[in-house]
Design goal:
Structural class: mainly alpha
Number of strands: 0
Helix content: 55-70%
Mean pLDDT: 91
CATH architecture of one domain: Orthogonal Bundle
Strand content: under 5%
Order of helices and strands: HHHHHHHHHHHHHHHHHHHHHHH
CATH class of one domain: Mainly Alpha
Distance between the termini: 30 Å
Oligomer: single chain
Radius of gyration: 23 Å
CATH topology of one domain: Lysozyme
Low-confidence stretches: 1-20, 23-42
Largest sheet: none
Shape: flat
């Protein structure tokens, strides 16, 4: 497992995502979550190599010896991509101490701040970013530091202050790399601060400034989410209708099905049963359609007469398609999964759904972000949950053992299930995007409906991940009993 942040996932030298709402795909943040199917890479060898080199070349005081600037940064990068945060910071600090006039000092400071952010040491992250902005504010890293300082404030529960920082970025860097996402982040930060009317004002500003672009559409989607959260059903339907007429081109952070579901949900909650049924029926369903599945669930509860017959035919068609694809949903490691699931009151089919998405059942899978094994655990997360699973002194290579991955991953999923009871979407989102972020999204959604929560997910990758995991879970529930016996 690992944790990441923010609507557009990509990569740079850290291969870790840190934001709180939205980032650009070419920015210096990236998903800390794995890419399913990636196999073990030479990164393990690089990690072992730099550790051996560091162990053999320390001075008498155990401090790092002076290396070339490039070598300090290279080793920091190797450690960071494997989430060995303390060791990464040690090299960045050595670089700054030995080469204080080097042009890449801002890069090292940014790395230190991000490492704190990634390990949830938010106050230390904020202090580092503030230093970066103060001393190197005119550099690209200084601009990034201002943006990420808002991230740290949000994580510390200071959403109003975070909104101020995003607004400062917009004012100081009107052509900055993150100018569009800074506008979107102001909106969400204000919502989290309970300042709804100010958020609406910023939605208008954003739409005006970015008229005709995906950012304008994303601001309109922010308005739809706000309308739903505030239970302004009439306005929500009107906003959804406007959104449905937009082009859903690349860069738009929602889909036709998601917008259609929020419209149907709004009609449903406003008591317009017949219109709601028609709206749910309009959402196409397939084995991989998350919102199609949610619509089918609502139709089972609402539909009557001819619409019930249509809903039944539609449901039977999907069941047939899932049955035909049964070979794509295997249940290996049955005994290990059952043992872990029963001891922690988890649905083993949900564990299978996670594994299928994380590693496609390949125990040697490894992501560029240092996530390993069936459940793609990162070493920092694994060491946090290993004691609860009866394990200690866990090493990176042990995460490739299926039994270890299932046991520790199950411990983590159980903890998340206690944080978010009866909210599997929130559990999956936490596994991918971090439980601190999910707590904010749950609060922001205000409604318990799973589709409303999923629409609030602030990272594009995490939202897609949740939808894929839940589609897997839908299939596994149909195909297997709770004891993982094929129906």
């Amino acid at each position: 497992m690992s944790n990441m942040r923010l609507l557009k996932a990509s990569s740079l030298f850290l291969v870790v995502m840190f934001g709180v709402g939205h980032v650009k795909p070419d920015s210096s943040s990236a998903s800390a979550r794995p890419v399913a199917g990636l196999v073990q890479s030479a990164n393990d060898g690089s990690l072992a190599s730099v550790r051996r080199s560091d162990d053999s070349s320390r001075g008498a005081d155990k401090r790092l010896v002076r290396l070339s600037p490039a070598e300090h940064l290279r080793r920091a990068n190797v450690y960071m991509t494997n989430r060995a945060f303390d060791e990464a910071r040690e090299h960045w600090r050595a670089f700054i101490e030995y080469y204080p006039q080097e042009a890449r000092v801002p890069e090292a400071l940014l790395g230190i701040g991000r490492s704190y952010l990634q390990s949830r040491r938010n106050a230390e992250a904020l202090s580092t970013f503030d230093q970066l902005v103060r001393d190197h504010g005119s550099t690209k890293e200084g601009r990034e530091g201002l943006n990420f300082s808002a991230t740290a404030l949000l994580r510390m529960g200071q959403s109003a202050d975070a909104a101020v920082r995003y607004a400062q970025y917009i004012e100081r860097f009107p052509q900055g790399e993150r100018i569009d996402t800074a506008h979107l982040n102001v909106i969400d930060a204000l919502r989290e601060a309970g300042r709804t009317q100010e958020a609406i004002v910023w939605i208008g500003r954003t739409r005006q400034r970015f008229a005709g672009t995906p950012t304008e559409t994303n601001a309109l989607f922010a308005r739809l989410r706000l309308d739903v959260a505030e239970a302004d059903w009439q306005q929500a339907v009107a906003t959804a209708d406007e959104l449905s007429r937009r082009r859903f081109q690349k860069g738009v952070l929602t889909t036709h099905s998601e917008a259609a579901y929020l419209r149907a949900y709004s009609l449903d909650r406003s008591g317009k049963r017949r219109e709601a049924i028609a709206a749910y029926l309009s959402i196409p369903d397939s084995p991989g359609s998350y919102y199609g599945w949610l619509a089918a669930e609502r139709l089972n509860a609402l539909a009557e007469g001819p619409s019930r017959s249509s809903a039944k035919d539609r449901s039977e068609g999907i069941q047939s398609q899932i049955a035909d694809a049964a070979a794509e949903y295997p249940a290996p490691y049955r005994q290990a999964i059952l043992k872990t699931a029963k001891a922690r009151k988890l649905d083993p089919r949900f564990i299978l759904a996670i594994i299928r998405q994380e590693s496609v059942f390949r125990p040697s899978a490894k992501s560029p972000a240092g996530a390993r094994g069936l459940l793609q655990l990162t070493i920092d997360a694994a060491r946090k949950y290993a004691p609860g699973a009866g394990l200690s002194n866990l090493a990176e290579n042990e995460l490739y053992r299926p039994e270890t991955s299932i046991l520790v991953g199950g411990e983590y999923l159980a903890d998340l299930s206690q944080m978010f009871p009866n909210m599997l979407e929130a559990v999956a989102a936490s596994y991918n995007g971090g439980e601190d972020n999910v707590a904010r999204w749950v609060k922001r959604a205000k409604h318990k409906d799973p589709g409303v929560f999923t629409a609030e997910i602030g990272f594009e990758e995490t939202k897609g991940y949740v939808q894929k995991v839940m589609a897997n879970y839908r299939a596994y529930r149909q195909l297997y009993t709770v004891d993982l016996i094929r129906r």
